[in-house]
Design goal:
The complex is a heterodimer of chains A (275) and B (172). Helices cover 48% and strands 7% of the residues of chain A. By secondary structure, chain A is α+β, with helices and mostly antiparallel strands. The termini of chain A are far apart. Chain B is an all-alpha fold and 172 residues long. Chain B is built from 9 helices and 1 strand. In chain B, helix 7 packs across helix 8. Classes of the chains: A alpha+beta (275), B mainly alpha (172). The interface between A and B is large, with 51 and 70 residues. Strand 1 of chain A pairs antiparallel with strand 1 of chain B, so a sheet runs across the interface.
């Protein structure tokens, strides 16, 4: 149907009303004829005018104009307002979910592991390193650690094997220690970190002795991977450092009730000259 | 005709507003809101329906029934209508029928007869359109219309003019 015909049909359909009821239903009147008595009563009844009630023309025109300019076209104003009302709670819920997920990720993040690499240090460089360590030993401190603490500490140790000795299975692979003993070792090597030993527990000290005594630490040195500027910290013999630490009154006071008491051979208070 | 303009909306309101309200009043107690929503829906309708009045009556009917179902959860519609006491027709001195009596008599009719009479008498719909609106046959709609008119005439106490003439002839 063309637009003009549609317009005419719309105009015609609007014109029908109570006054031309019978004209509009001429076709039906031929088939459904009412008795004469009812026809007269029908005319009298149709003379009553229905109440429009509280139908407000101005309000309706206003709402129609408002609906015509609202975004979304077919949606009513109340529908748009309803959707806007849910936008902020939805955004709040989404942000809360993201925050909770980030918190869970932070709490469940694994601690950085310590990688132990065995390197071969020539004897001449070893002497140079010891001299350098003696010069800078007093400066060794917490500043030598990773500034942001994100990079895992790397412990570089001298290879205990003799030159030319065939490499065993997996000997060239880095050895990964758990973070806690690594912290202990680093504390031993850095004299400035002795106070951290006060946080030692008996189990940790035993683990340190059982795990690290087998490692020839007499020539070990610790360094921190901070972008290539490795810096030697200390090269004192391990047992000497350990005995000094155990003779430290502050550390002994802090850990007196947690020191291992057996076996006697590994009692740190009795093995001060075990090197 | 792409959309309903203010002029057409005003004409619809003037010529069919009262009848639409009366039609919606057969189901719900807030007919004005239903009619207003129907007219707003017509404004948003694109393209404009071919039979605007028939489309309006259908939307008003659906809306009024929906509102009525919501109200029926709390109380029965008949009880609400009895307590309401609103006039369905404008009282005018030249009317030959009493508006209050017509409201009461129309309110006691079954819903099918009421709906048919209102749509036919004041809405100007044909029997075919009413049949399509109600989902019934044309003969059923005509039967409801005739039965409803007869019941209204009896309840309003309107005598048959032919019988009155016969009575007068016998008395003479």
């Amino acid at each position: 149907m063309s637009e003009s015909k549609r317009s005419e049909a719309g105009q015609r359909s609007v014109r029908r009303g109570p006054e031309d009821t019978h004209a509009a239903s001429d076709a039906a009147a031929g088939r459904f004829e009412l008795p004469a008595e009812l026809k007269a009563f029908e005319a009298r009844l149709a003379s009553l005018t229905p109440c429009a009630g509280r139908l407000d023309r101005e309000a309706l025109i206003f709402e129609a104009g408002r609906a015509s300019v609202l975004p979304g076209g077919g949606r009513s104003a109340s529908g748009v307002l309803r959707r806007l009302r849910w936008s902020w709670p939805t955004a709040f819920g989404a942000m809360t979910t993201v925050a909770a997920a980030l918190l869970a990720m932070v709490l469940m993040r694994p601690e950085p592991s310590v990688v132990v690499r065995y390197v071969r240090v020539p004897p001449d460089k070893r002497a140079t390193t010891q001299a350098s360590d003696e010069r800078h030993g007093s400066e060794a401190g917490p500043s030598q650690r990773s500034p942001n603490g994100t990079a895992p500490p790397v412990l570089v140790r001298d290879d205990p094997r003799e030159p030319g000795q065939p490499e065993g299975e997996g000997s060239d692979r880095p050895r990964v220690l758990s973070p806690r003993p690594a912290t202990i070792l680093a504390t031993v090597w850095f004299p400035g970190h002795k106070l951290e030993m006060t946080s030692l527990r008996r189990r940790e000290l035993e683990a340190m002795l059982a795990q690290d005594i087998d490692i020839p630490l007499s020539t070990a040195k610790a360094s921190v991977g901070d972008g290539g500027s490795e810096r030697a910290a200390a090269s004192q013999p391990y047992w000497q450092l350990r005995d000094e630490l155990l003779r430290d009154p502050a550390w002994r006071r802090a850990t007196s009730d947690e020191l291992p008491k057996s076996p006697a051979a590994k009692d740190p208070l009795r093995t001060g000259t075990n090197s | 005709m792409n959309s309903v303009g203010p002029e057409l909306l005003t004409r619809l309101l003037d010529e069919h507003g009262g009848a639409l309200v009366l039609y919606a009043r057969q189901w719900c107690r807030t007919p004005e809101d239903v009619v207003q929503e129907a007219l707003l829906s017509l404004v948003k309708q694109q393209p404009v329906p071919e039979n605007v009045v028939g489309w309006l009556y259908r939307v008003v009917r659906n809306g009024a029934i929906s509102v009525s179902r919501s109200a029926l959860r709390r109380t029965r519609r008949e009880a609400m209508c009895a307590q309401r006491g609103e006039l369905w027709f404008q009282a005018a001195p030249e009317d030959r029928l009493d508006a209050d009596a017509a409201t009461a008599a129309l309110g006691r009719l079954p819903i099918e007869q009421r709906e048919t009479i209102v749509a036919r008498l004041w809405g100007g719909l044909t029997f075919e359109e009413i049949a399509e609106l109600t989902g019934s046959s044309t003969s059923s709609v005509h039967r409801w219309y005739q039965t409803g008119l007869s019941a209204l005439r009896e309840r309003l106490g309107v005598a048959c003019p032919n019988r009155n003439a016969a009575k007068q002839a016998k008395e003479v």
